[in-house]
Amino acid sequence: MAFETAFAIDTSSLKYGPGVTTEVGHDMTELGGSRVMVVTDPNLADSEPVTVALDALRKEGIDAVLFDQARVEPTDLSLKKATQFASEGNFDGYVAVGGGSSIDTAKAANLYATYPADLMTYVNRPIGEGRPVPGPLKPLIAVPTTAGTGSETTGVVVFDLLEMRAKTGISHRALRPVMGIVDPNNTRTLPRMVAAATGLDVLTHALESLTALPFSRRPAPKDPKSRPVYQGANPISDIWASRAVEMVSQNLVRAVEDPSDDEARGRMLLAASFAGIGFGNAGCHLPHAMSYPVSGMVRDYVPEGYPRGHPLVPHGMAVVLNAPAAFRWTAPTDPELHLYAAKLMGADPAGAGPEDAGELLAGAIVDLMRRTGIPNGLGAVGYGPDDVDQMVASTLPQHRLTKLLPRPAGPEELKQLFLDSLTCW
User: Fold this and answer.
1) How does pLDDT run across 55-64, given as a tens digit for each residue?
2) Which residue of 124, 227, 245, 293 pairs with 344 in a disulfide if CB–CB is 3.0 to 4.6 A?
């Protein structure tokens, strides 16, 4: 087998600073947009970030049309609803204002309105057909209001496939927003648990991209067009991921406990973008793969601070609940790297040997979970041993993620990992 010898680093243009949302009209005009679909969720429809964005667009003479029905944790049905709105609207640009859910919804609407197809056409294999995006999309500017997914920098859409009761996704470089407007003013009103869950998503993004299968151990693509978005760990993604781990570890508790701490919130927002550049090119692996059934199989759990309209285990929470067990599992593949990650989080590796690497990193993650009020494992969000077999079955098809594992995990290994994640401490 021939192995990969090249890697690429792609990201959106980023603009950072308090108040830069007021420049979105100027930026969209520069991109040639004159009729724009503004995508957000119902909880943000009347918020300051959305109002500021709409005013800025209209001030530049842009016909800005609000779509406020993006679902928190999108589903195949909610993406189809947004696509229909986009298809009927004849838009030449998109602006997403919100968390990763709104940004991912805008990416999907842009894709399917530009290149109409059955939903499963572009969905990652083996769940969908995995066809590449046929060509360029309309310009999309992302304005994140959570310090979480880093979706403003990535070419990935994640959604719940309802019939499968698990998440899946679409990955292609063309989906990446042209620009991310990273404005700390837009995270001031985040509820405590939303700030915690999204912030821990940043942490796991960074840790997973740092510890993913190295790009040089991945099979070479048959041609450049076939090189995946998630390429494996590489020297450039490592830099972004490492800095993101440090920034989250130093600022998340401050941002959760004191929303008026502008410095901490600003650094968390930057950390989300940094981690997005890292995992958006290197990829994620086990914690994210295991998170998909955790979100998709939820029965009646609704965390404090989230909309009460439907049960959900927020994405960042679903990911981090699996993270301690996952990094204990991956640590033997490169103990030195896992000790380095633990040190980035503030743990003291003095006297620790290779056999301690997984426990040291897992302990640092658990400490941050406890300090930010995250539930104690899958059992605390409604799952038990009887759910594990279905969780394993829903994780196995997530090849986009599991193929980046530095240490393969089959059905029996995944079963034990889920059992180990029922409680984290």
Assistant:
1) 999 999 999 9
2) 245
d(CA 60, CA 53): 11
The type of residue at 139 is: P
Phi and psi (nearest 5°) for 189? -100, 15
Q: What's the fold here for domain 192-420?
A: Dehydroquinate synthase-like, alpha domain (1.20.1090)
420 Ramachandran zone, left/alpha/beta (phi>0; psi -120 to 50): alpha
Would the pLDDT of 226 be above 90? Answer: no
For residue 168, CA distances in Å to 22, 91, 127, 292, 395 come to: 34, 27, 8, 7, 10
Q: Is the pLDDT of residue 166 over 80?
A: no
- CA pair distance 292, 161, nearest whole angstrom: 10
Residue given tokens 């998109």 in the structure block: 94
- Of 10, 3, 403, 7, which is closest to residue 213 (Cα–Cα)? 403
Q: How far, rounded to the nearest angstrom, does the alpha carbon of residue 192 sit from its chain's CA centroid?
A: 19
pTM: 0.92
Specify the CATH number of the domain 19-182: 3.40.50.1970
Mean pLDDT of the chain: 95
Three-state DSSP class for 171? strand
> Rounded to an integer, what distance in angstroms lies between the CA atom of residue 95 and that of residue 40?
9
**Number of residues that make up the chain:** 425
Residues 6+ apart with CB under 8 A from 36: 28, 57, 62, 63, 64, 65, 91, 92, 93, 94, 95
Predicted local distance difference test score (pLDDT) of residue 88: 98
For the chain, the structural domain boundaries read 19-182, 192-420
Q: Which of 208, 124, 117 is nearest to 172 (CA)?
A: 124
Reported as type and span, the H/E element at residue 163 is: none
Q: Does residue 37 have a pLDDT over 90?
A: yes
Encoded tokens for 259: 């929303």
Between CA 87 and CA 123 the distance in angstroms is 19
